[in-house]
Design a protein that fits this description.
The complex is a heterotrimer of chains A (354), B (283) and C (320).
Chain A lengths: L1 H32 L1 H4 L20 E3 L5 E12 L7 E10 L1 E11 L3 E9 L18 H37 L1 H16 L2 H10 L7 H15 L2 H15 L2 H8 L4 H37 L11 H5 L5 H6 L5 H28 L1
Antiparallel strand pairs in A: 1-2, 2-3, 4-5
Helix pairs in contact in A: 1-12, 3-4, 3-6, 3-7, 3-9, 4-7, 5-6, 7-9, 9-12
Chain B lengths: L1 H10 L4 E13 L6 E14 L4 E5 L6 H8 L7 E6 L2 E2 L5 H7 L3 E4 L3 H4 L6 H12 L5 H13 L16 H13 L5 E5 L7 H18 L2 E6 L2 H5 L4 E6 L2 E7 H6 L4 H20 L5
Parallel strand pairs in B: 3-8, 3-9, 6-7, 7-8
Antiparallel strand pairs in B: 1-2, 1-4, 4-5, 9-10
Chain C lengths: L2 H26 L4 H6 L6 H10 L6 H13 L5 E2 L4 E2 H36 L4 H14 L3 H15 L17 H39 L2 H8 L4 H39 L4 H10 L3 H29 L7
Antiparallel strand pairs in C: 1-2
The chains are: A alpha+beta (354), B alpha/beta (283), C mainly alpha (320).
The complex binds adenosine-5'-diphosphate and magnesium ion (MG).
The site of magnesium ion has 4 residues of chain B, from helix 2.
Chain lengths: 354, 283, 320
């Protein structure tokens, strides 16, 4: 009796956890999808007079000590004596306005618009996460780069899971030599350390190709390297589902392979697939980041979290401009959300199977 | 009177005639030469007379389920013949199977494993109809409810999922599902094991009703001779992959021919007398 | 056949499979080292063709594979186009450096994780347990790349440790103890990164397998006999929880090696990672294959070691 009650309260909190993690993720993805609206500027627009500007500070209290309800910024001006050193010019406050007119973009990549969530009047600029060596707004670049990095992660996950589902199902359902050979190959992919494998596969593909080609090539490489684990898990589920009595009964009614698969076998794999998806997406985003960081992925001027971080490979950037770590923050926040979701899925899966 | 009827029925040609049926399971490991061989069926000869309840008994591992699977065309035997309604079915082609399958239906022992836990009662019963494309839409729903009521389940429970039913109710669901295709032969493989005595009796009663209503031939498989001995018209005894005895119930009980049958009978009697001894005054 | 012999044969099969896989990938790929040379106007197409045939690149895949296999048996591991030297001579030093880094990191990570995990498993739900679980779940979502960069930043800002490479420039002039000290200080950043990246997984596994065992009846019985807590945890529970942990040791090699590749590149540790990156950039086919094979070899050796430990810890395994 008591254990029963404890069980329900535990699964309840797990349910709440799942929901919380899912909601946070939806919010984060929403920010990326509507990145054009949230970003105050364009990712590619350079401002060569303002390289490496530190994050703009938001003020509420002005020089006279008056409190402003609407936050404002000061204009950053370079200090005459130092290279890449800035100070705030306190002459004039530039209040932050909501829904301002700015550069054109497409809402969620669909409708043309020029309204941005926030902005300040020229000549002041607002760099929430500082600016990079070309004076581009890092905050905008992180938002736009998120599209590419997350898009790559999601698509690659789709490829891995589709491959894993297909091969795992064939393997588990048809058994015998098919199973034997697919699982041997899977073992091969699992025994190779993934980053070495990734680099090796990348090594054999052309280096200098167009950014769009690179993007899809990268997704294909990342996605096809990671099929083995989902395939193994799916195989296990299919194998155990296949030998259930109700599958035998279904055969007795004259069910075809496709009916048995569709109605009795595949529904069991969804839990595993969801958990794997939540684990793979951050892993693959990191894979994209890693490859781009190493110069084997997407290159400038296309922003991705990887090539944003690649700035840190320069010693002076790493030492002097801490805000160049900002893309890493975005990466960590997304990973945290996905891992929390994966954890919740995993717990639910266990409570179902036990 | 009953014996007379039984002999009259027996005079008609058998519904199922099994001849020299053999099945061997071989398990081998890859990269290893050791094989693990089980002769589950060895030259089985048996007949199932029509419109009767035939019991197949034998201790566990004697090959009863294997025989049932072969009859239900879920396993292909290595050699031998199975004649059903004048056709040899053990090596039927896929197109023939389609028309044959509905006629021989099976109810499994483990009722929780035999019903998909993700399905509702209605979905479970509708499955064979869906696969065979007999009826669809509103009619399908109506037919499912009819079947539920026929096996003594309220149609109000149609949308409950399988695990919300008790063991006996699940067995009823499995029977309803098997009846959906209006089979000629119904095989119940250990369908009463694992149920309590009252539920066993209820299911046996249900079986008697539907046998008459559908003019069904039943093969009731059990390891427990005392249980099926009371209801079966014919009894076949299986031992180590062969049928060692098949006759009317009376014949088997009164003058068993095989030593192993006598052992089985003796076992049921000792258990029965032990029961009586333990509960004085219960008679 | 003996259990370990079987595992050994299995490992060798995997190695052969991995090498075939590498050659298959290379065969699918459109570009090669000589394509880059072709772009150079000073080298005539004839020279490129001659070079190609000299290195056997005009041969079909199976022929190239057999040639490569022969050169492995000769101890050359193919030929590097870029270095103009047998691959083995390049690999040996680099592989040793990677092994040093990963070996030290593995040792430290387990050394920390096991007692810590046992401790928090024995006191579930307490503050220290919650703190450990919370911090590890955050740490889990920080990629090695970010960890390495962050540590590098801290060190560079504080000037606490030397940065970059494996030893200082004046290493050769140092005495023996100073040499070891120098090496150790250079190890700190890469090792710390790897330990931080791998500690959470190991810690969580130790905790969960210990908690599983502590629930078992024989532990309850031992507790009833009044055995001391430390003895209970380390002499009774830990051996019982060892099997899954030893398996984890085998599995975790892959993550460790991948992490090490990145850390090496970021911190300038002259291991296999920078070599692979360089070879990837210059399409130095046999170096890529050689590095991948070395990493696979490490992985398989790690698994074999785990198998051997499993055998020592649990005689039942012999039956399998
Ligand atoms: N799929 C199978 N693979 C291997 N051996 C099997 C298989 N099914 C049954 N057997 C073996 O065949 C023998 C008969 O089994 P079964 O027909 O299930 O016996 P019963 O139903 O009388 O208990 C047993 O020894 C069993 O182990
Ligand atoms: Mg059986």
């Amino acid at each position: 009796m008591k254990t029963g009650k404890m069980m329900t309260s535990k699964t309840m909190t797990n349910k709440a956890k799942t929901r919380a993690a899912a909601m946070v993720l939806v919010l984060l993805h929403g920010i990326i999808v509507f990145g054009g609206f949230i970003a105050p500027g364009e990712p590619a627009s350079q401002n060569r007079d303002f390289p490496f500007v530190p994050p703009t500070r938001l003020h509420f209290v002005d020089a006279q000590g008056h409190f402003h309800l609407r936050p404002f910024v000061y204009q950053s001006v370079s200090r005459p004596e130092g290279l890449y050193e800035y100070e705030e010019s306190r002459d004039q406050e530039y209040p932050i306005h909501l829904f301002v007119e700015g550069p054109k973009y497409k809402i969620a990549g669909l409708f043309l618009s020029s309204i941005h969530l926030f902005g300040v009047e020229a000549p002041a600029q607002i760099f929430l996460a500082g600016s990079d060596n070309y004076g581009r707004d890092q905050f905008s670049r992180i938002l736009y780069g998120g599209r590419i990095s997350l898009g790559a992660g999601l698509l690659a996950t789709g490829i891995s899971l589709s491959l894993g589902l297909l091969l795992g199902t064939i393997s588990g359902f048809y058994g015998r030599w098919v199973d034997e050979s697919v699982m041997r190959i899977a073992e091969l992919f699992l025994v190779l350390p993934w980053l070495y494998l990734l680099l090796a596969v990348r090594a054999f593909l052309p280096l200098h190709i167009s950014p769009v080609q690179t993007f899809f090539l990268l997704i294909a490489v990342i996605g096809s390297v990671g099929w083995a684990r989902p395939a193994r898990l799916v195989r296990g589920v299919v194998l155990s589902a296949r030998t259930r009595k109700y599958v035998l009964a279904s055969r007795g009614f004259g069910a075809s392979d496709s009916y048995v698969l569709r109605r009795h076998v595949l529904p069991h794999t969804y839990g595993v697939l969801l958990t794997q998806a939540a684990l793979l997406v951050p892993q693959y985003v990191i894979a994209e980041v890693t490859l781009s960081f190493l110069g084997l992925g997407l290159s400038e001027p296309l922003p991705s979290w990887g090539n944003l971080l690649a700035n840190l490979q320069q010693y002076n950037v790493l030492v002097s401009y801490w805000w160049m770590f900002a893309p890493a923050m975005a990466l960590v926040v997304f990973s945290l959300g996905y891992l929390a979701l994966a954890d919740a899925f995993h717990k639910r899966l266990q409570s179902v199977t036990v | 009177m009953a014996a007379e009827q039984a002999t009259k029925r027996a005079a008609r040609p058998a519904l199922v005639r099994v001849h020299a049926l053999s099945k061997r399971y071989v398990q081998r490991r890859i990269f290893s030469r050791d094989k693990f061989v089980v002769d589950a069926l060895k030259n089985v000869d048996v007949e199932i007379p029509p419109d009767c309840l035939t019991a197949l008994v034998g201790e566990s591992g004697s090959g009863k389920s294997t025989l049932a699977s072969c009859l239900a065309m879920l396993e292909t035997p290595d050699s031998g013949e199975i004649w059903f309604e004048g056709r040899e079915i053990s090596r039927a082609a896929a197109c023939e199977l389609e028309s044959l399958r509905p006629k021989i239906q099976m109810v499994f022992q483990d009722s929780s494993g035999a019903l998909n836990p993700r399905f509702s009662a209605a979905q479970i019963i509708a499955e064979p109809l869906e696969i065979q494309r007999r009826v669809s839409g509103r009619k399908l729903r109506q037919r499912t409810c009819e079947l539920m009521e026929e096996v003594g389940l309220s149609a109000d429970w149609a949308d409950r999922s399988a695990h919300e039913f008790s063991g006996g109710q699940r067995q009823r669901l499995a029977i309803a599902r098997a009846l959906a295709l209006r089979p000629t032969l119904l095989i119940l493989d250990e369908s009463l094991s694992g149920l309590d005595l009252v539920t066993q009796a209820q299911i046996l009663n249900l079986l008697a009703e539907i046998r008459i209503a559908h003019s069904l031939t039943c093969l009731l498989i059990s390891h427990d001779l005392s249980l099926v001995g009371q209801v079966a018209d014919h009894i076949a005894v299986m031992h180590k992959g062969t049928i060692i005895e098949r006759d009317t119930r009376q014949q088997v009980f009164e003058s068993p021919r095989h030593a192993h049958t006598r052992e089985l009978l003796a076992a049921t009697r000792t258990i029965a007398s032990a029961f009586r001894a333990e509960r004085p005054g219960s008679e | 056949m003996n259990y370990l012999t079987r595992r050994l044969i299995h490992g060798i099969m995997l190695l052969i499979g991995a090498s075939i896989l590498c050659f298959l990938f290379a065969d699918f790929a459109p570009g090669s080292f000589f394509d880059e040379i072709k772009l150079n106007p000073q080298i005539s197409p004839e020279t490129v063709a001659a070079l190609r045939s000299r290195y056997g690149l005009d041969q079909p895949m199976p022929v190239r594979y057999v040639r490569w296999a022969k050169s492995v048996f000769r101890g050359e591991w193919g030929y590097s186009f870029a270095y103009n030297a047998p691959v083995r001579s390049l690999l040996a030093v680099r592989a040793g450096n990677t092994l040093l880094l990963t070996g030290v990191a593995t040792f430290l990570a387990w050394l920390i994780a096991v007692p810590w995990g046992i401790w928090i498993a024995a006191h579930p739900g307490r503050g220290i347990d919650r703190l450990s679980m919370g911090s590890t779940s955050v740490l889990l979502s920080v990629p090695e790349l970010v960890l390495a960069l962050g540590l590098l930043y801290l060190v560079v800002r504080t000037h606490a440790l030397p940065v970059g490479g494996m030893v200082s420039l004046r290493f050769d002039q140092l005495g023996r103890w100073s040499k070891i000290r120098d090496l150790a200080t250079h190890l700190v950043i890469p090792v710390t990164t790897l330990v931080l990246a791998n500690l959470p997984i190991i810690l969580r596994h130790v905790r969960s397998s210990m908690m599983e065992v502590l629930k078992a009846p024989f532990i309850q019985a031992a507790r009833g006999h009044g055995i001391s807590k430390a003895s209970l945890l380390f002499h009774y529970a830990l051996p019982a929880a060892a099997n899954p942990l030893i398996s984890l040791f085998g599995f975790s090699m892959g993550g460790l090696l991948s992490g090490s590749l990145l850390v090496e590149v970021v911190t300038g540790w002259p291991g296999l990672g920078p070599l692979l990156l360089e070879a990837t950039m210059s399409r130095d086919l046999y170096v890529v294959v050689g590095v991948v094979m070395s990493s696979t070899l490490f992985m398989i050796l790690g698994n074999l070691l785990a198998d051997a430990m499993l055998l020592a810890a649990d005689p039942r395994v012999r039956m399998q």
